[in-house]
Design goal:
GO molecular function, one term (chains A, B, C, D): oxidoreductase activity, acting on the CH-OH group of donors, NAD or NADP as acceptor
CATH class of the largest domain in chain A: Alpha Beta
Number of helices of chain A: 11
CATH topology of the largest domain in chain A: Quinone Oxidoreductase, Chain A, domain 1
Oligomer: homotetramer
Shape of chain A: globular
Organism (chains A, B, C, D): Pseudomonas vranovensis
InterPro entries (chains A, B, C, D): ADH-like_C (IPR013149), ADH-like_N (IPR013154), ADH_Zn_CS (IPR002328), ER (IPR020843), GroES-like_sf (IPR011032), NAD(P)-bd_dom_sf (IPR036291)
Radius of gyration of chain A: 20 Å
Number of strands of chain A: 16
Structural class of chain A: alpha/beta
Number of domains of chain A: 2
Keywords (chains A, B, C, D): Metal-binding, Oxidoreductase, Zinc
Domain Enoyl reductase (ER) (chains A, B, C, D): 12-355
Chain lengths: 357, 357, 357, 357
Amino acid sequence: MAKMKAAIFVEKNRIVLDEKPIPEVGPLDALIRITTTTLCGTDVHILRGEYPVAKGLTIGHEPVGVIEKLGSQVQGFVEGQRVIAGAITPSGHSFACLCGCGAQDGPDTRHGFRAAGGWKFGNSIDGSQAEYLLVPDATANLCAIPDHLSDEQVLMCPDIMSTGFSGAERGEVQIGDTVVVFALGPIGLCAVAGARLKGATTIIGVDTVAARIEVAHKLGATHVVDFNKGDVVQQIMRLTDGRGVDVAIEALGTQSTFESALRVLRPGGTLSSLGVYSSDLRLPLDAFAAGLGDYRIVSTLCPGGKERMRRLMEVVGSGQVDLKPLVTHHFKLDDIEAAYELFAHQRDGVMKVAITP
Amino acid sequence: MAKMKAAIFVEKNRIVLDEKPIPEVGPLDALIRITTTTLCGTDVHILRGEYPVAKGLTIGHEPVGVIEKLGSQVQGFVEGQRVIAGAITPSGHSFACLCGCGAQDGPDTRHGFRAAGGWKFGNSIDGSQAEYLLVPDATANLCAIPDHLSDEQVLMCPDIMSTGFSGAERGEVQIGDTVVVFALGPIGLCAVAGARLKGATTIIGVDTVAARIEVAHKLGATHVVDFNKGDVVQQIMRLTDGRGVDVAIEALGTQSTFESALRVLRPGGTLSSLGVYSSDLRLPLDAFAAGLGDYRIVSTLCPGGKERMRRLMEVVGSGQVDLKPLVTHHFKLDDIEAAYELFAHQRDGVMKVAITP
Amino acid sequence: MAKMKAAIFVEKNRIVLDEKPIPEVGPLDALIRITTTTLCGTDVHILRGEYPVAKGLTIGHEPVGVIEKLGSQVQGFVEGQRVIAGAITPSGHSFACLCGCGAQDGPDTRHGFRAAGGWKFGNSIDGSQAEYLLVPDATANLCAIPDHLSDEQVLMCPDIMSTGFSGAERGEVQIGDTVVVFALGPIGLCAVAGARLKGATTIIGVDTVAARIEVAHKLGATHVVDFNKGDVVQQIMRLTDGRGVDVAIEALGTQSTFESALRVLRPGGTLSSLGVYSSDLRLPLDAFAAGLGDYRIVSTLCPGGKERMRRLMEVVGSGQVDLKPLVTHHFKLDDIEAAYELFAHQRDGVMKVAITP
Amino acid sequence: MAKMKAAIFVEKNRIVLDEKPIPEVGPLDALIRITTTTLCGTDVHILRGEYPVAKGLTIGHEPVGVIEKLGSQVQGFVEGQRVIAGAITPSGHSFACLCGCGAQDGPDTRHGFRAAGGWKFGNSIDGSQAEYLLVPDATANLCAIPDHLSDEQVLMCPDIMSTGFSGAERGEVQIGDTVVVFALGPIGLCAVAGARLKGATTIIGVDTVAARIEVAHKLGATHVVDFNKGDVVQQIMRLTDGRGVDVAIEALGTQSTFESALRVLRPGGTLSSLGVYSSDLRLPLDAFAAGLGDYRIVSTLCPGGKERMRRLMEVVGSGQVDLKPLVTHHFKLDDIEAAYELFAHQRDGVMKVAITP
């Protein structure tokens, strides 16, 4: 049986490059030869044991590659095509998918709903940090890359662009809105770009790292609030003349950012939560206006599926959003352990790394 | 200056019937002679000092009456007409109103948004537990009562029917949904009726009081879960074959009900919060699926304005929802202190009381 | 090769019962042994050559049956289960499906969108008026029938209930709305029931046949307008005190009903079109308010897929909507030509017929 | 009684500058001294007698000015403030306003809905092509101009920007959509900008005039189709690889553009109509997919009110949309007849004119 290299979760604080068999291709699957992939903050949570996965699992959920082999029932693609697949791979045929909630795709029985069932790569099945990747329900999940786009140009589509944009989309940003984005990591930066794409006119980024702030301005932030330079809530209320914001996007996953996001909402505003949390959250009574504020809190898992990927690649192709500045480092798959080392410690101004087998 | 009787907040644990001048009528106002009004759970919060209002304020926000005098600029009404006004009285001309959020109506400057600004009666201005009530922005807030409806039939429209229904409306209940309503007080019972009106097919009420449960079944509840007969979350998950509910409506205002509502949501489900809380809320990490569950949490303040009142009276007139069983007791305004005594202690199976001057 | 009986389109005005091979089952398919099916108005259009289908095609798109054989890749079902499938069978994996428009499901390439691609049974593939039916993309389209529901109780779910309800759903009927339904055939009657389920309080049916009007009242119509007793538009405007309706549902497919539906809209109202038209439509300048009326016109093809079927069977099971009075006649499959004869001529008060092999 | 100059409709083909009394200010009104206004295509319809208004009416609905005098009940403004008001002036207190449809504002009785009731200036009351303008319901309709914006920068907000943007908003343009705009007059150009603001990635303008096409590209058009260079529908289908468009915006008001807009929709797409039509419209059977296409047709009247104006000025202030190139000519109010002459004949590349008293 042919072998491939893959980044495998061994135990807490150990992800190593090892060999695994190249997967068998079932009727609904496609085997992708990975040409570029990347690391995600969630992978670091996995590395640190904060988000549990099975030992021996291949990590990674951001694939760019070439179709090596198609299952007998896959339609609409040919071997040799350049493709991406989303981090989340809805089956298309679950009850969740058929009520428009593909990210929450679960087992196919009525009783099987459970949260985040659509997130499979590097979570419930082997992921993309490998030479080959098996894509389930490939007809629903592969999307051909337009010829004029490079691997690196579409590398952010499977996860951070889809997640970040969804912060603005589920927040229902309107033309003329004021939006704040808490934390300008890769997801937050994409949320800034998404808010801009949806017509927000005042976009406030919250961070303290100069390089991130610079990218945020390029992607559409009109103001930046530095949490080291005074109370964040007060700064934002001042910037909005005491009115508060229409939509607050949480892109870090902490009590502090979540609570501040709630506190700066105008009555009737929306807190759009993208963060992956690692502890309970608290809604202070006054911040929640005792339940009388007409607030909306929405949490969103990265939307996937080929139609989503097609649209995101359209955005890239249109030139409206340029995420190339986010890819700060390049590694070979052979050096992925070094990539994790750099990325997990946020050294050297790293935002995203491109990994090529 | 002519005097009238009014139920006045004197200090914590003292609401008394006293005399006050009958209000002057400004150009935008209408003076209503109250023919029927009622007490609300929120009034009990005020009585107990849990929700602060100014000393000397007339309490009450559920008016049914007759137009005694119209301001010079009020259009579309005549003196002598039978009318109601909503508990919340949007001005119609604030920034909040003009972006569709009338309950959050505030001062008319851009800087003046603040939560719950549309709730004026018995909160920021004198309320309806009196012989006369001054209705601000009367053109936007009065609504004529159809001749064939009695005072008591429309007495629930200004607040609990509007609030309860909004739980289902903001929860975006769909045909075929499973909905749970936590606590079957007057608001919760109206939420049951609202869920039924919106097409829910499985409606689970949570309570333990037999009389309330009986009314819940009449209003559309298909199942009831008694929190004294085992773990509520487990009971609901069993009733839904482990699937969870599409929409959970919180109608009490406690950590326990809020948290249970979150725990029984299907992935992608909505927690629709109606309760008035009196302490911080906690979102347990697992119940919130670490932010990955595509959940929506919406809080809603009672929708007001004449179009809302018109529609609610249409519902009453259509015979689809009969709330008469909720009015369990009758008092004269002169006996309102006794009514508070009964209602605050939930004696004698009281649900709502009708107060007539 | 085993044979089965099937109702086949031979040529204009000839649908005959003939023999065909029982279909082969592919990996994604399920073979259903039909236990009950029915005829639809659209089948009569096909019979008359008004809606073109291929010669030799088996007609019918409303299947109730038992799983005879499952394809190797079908998940979540077992042979012997009682099931239905929707008239429309979205693949779940097309671009159209993945942007929430499964009824418009098309080929799996980006270039392949075309209208009504999700309608396959008795249109682009063999249909349900036969002893056996091959269901494509069975994981997405089969739905188990709850034990306590009979075939006849769920016979309306695949098409007319789904279509009729969608008239109210896509019309976005709100609590307290006034709705008119033009023509009280089976679809129109289900639209009445759907409007009621969504919270409409005034529901006006337009027809002239006593038996239909009687059923309409049972399903929720509050008023009926007889087009033989005066101008329909004037009658409706009078019933609504000159206000017009919030939502007008067109359920016949003619210029006359479409135009009247437009004329009775309140400014800002919605015309929800369910009819299958056979000629161009005209929007009179005044009826369309020269484009200034904030009107919405939506046309909807029957929603399908297993989640839809599950929800509709929940409605039946809840007892909120009883469509049994619509099944006026019963035939054996062997007598289907006689059933067509009766149904096409609307003899003997026929509404829907149940066909059993 | 003090007099002012005003452009008055005398009879078909005659709008003249004449004298009129400066209006009296009622309690809810504000008197604005006009500093800049403009002409609209609708004014030309009025001039030509195609849209009927009363003889003697002052024309114009696009006011920029300074508050000269405030009615006693107007809140939130001071005399001397620079303000705009929308072309449409919702009362804020009508049934239509209170169900979110302010452009369809009508008399305050339940029976009084009629289309376009919110359009008052230069339609049912005196308009803005004058030295002074009386603004009704001023609290709801005035909006202060930020100091850093000039009159000319906000001159497009009251009508064409609000109307054009609403084409994209009511069309529910999503990130990654393909949008076509039929006719690149001022409204169409603003629709292009609106589609861009809402996240469309392919925006096709249809026109033939070089100067308009140039501006369209600046405002976000990615492609232009010239109707003189072949069949428009075929050109658009080719540009979209046969897929069709998600949203087609009609911005001219003719059968030809309306029909083409329908023909290029993808199944499930939306036709967003902004044009003011002058004859019946036809929906060809095939273009309407016989009612099976899941199409949506929405018509929209310019949204008004101070919150809308505030948001549009935010867009201008953000620099995201620069409409200055649309103002091609300047006239004094004294020369307004010459302005009409130029504008009505579309001479000299005119797009919009600025008129200053």
